[in-house]
Amino acid sequence: MNGGQLMVVLIIAIVMVASIVKARYGIRKDRYGNEHFDHPDTAETQRLREEVKQLKERLAVLERITVEKENSLAREIEQLRER
Length: 83
Prior knowledge:
Elements: H1 3-24, E1 27-29, E2 35-37, H2 43-82
């Protein structure tokens, strides 16, 4: 093989290896060319998703409590000013 043929064979080998690695790790491209990972949900992934869901619910409750306290505090201040 001369240098040109060797280069072609190496390029093809590199592309094949890259395709195998992408398939192994579940990397695919959408129609816009963005890469996405296709990993099946494991037990740990499900547990983490549930934990994130619970944390979001707790944050919503804390935000609601904070807003209610600010509103009640503002009402109390206004009542004291009126006296």
